[in-house]
Amino acid sequence: MTDIQQEEDELERAFTGLDASKVHFAVLGDAQSDVGLLTRREEDRAFILRLFGAVETRRFKFKRAC
Hints:
Oligomer: single chain
Structural class: alpha/beta
Strand content: 15-25%
Number of strands: 5
Largest sheet: 3 strands, mixed
Order of helices and strands: EHEEHEE
Distance between the termini: 29 Å
Number of domains: 1
């Protein structure tokens, strides 16, 4: 098994740069129930987690040390 992580700021910039009329959220996950979640609207977060039966985690992101 290989754990893959994305740098948090780069991931946010890439998500923000996507067409907001087409991409409303992104889920980073694997076979486990914890996911990384990016949403356009904060009110969508709880709905998406409930829909997928998931809990949010930081396992898929890291913050670059300056």
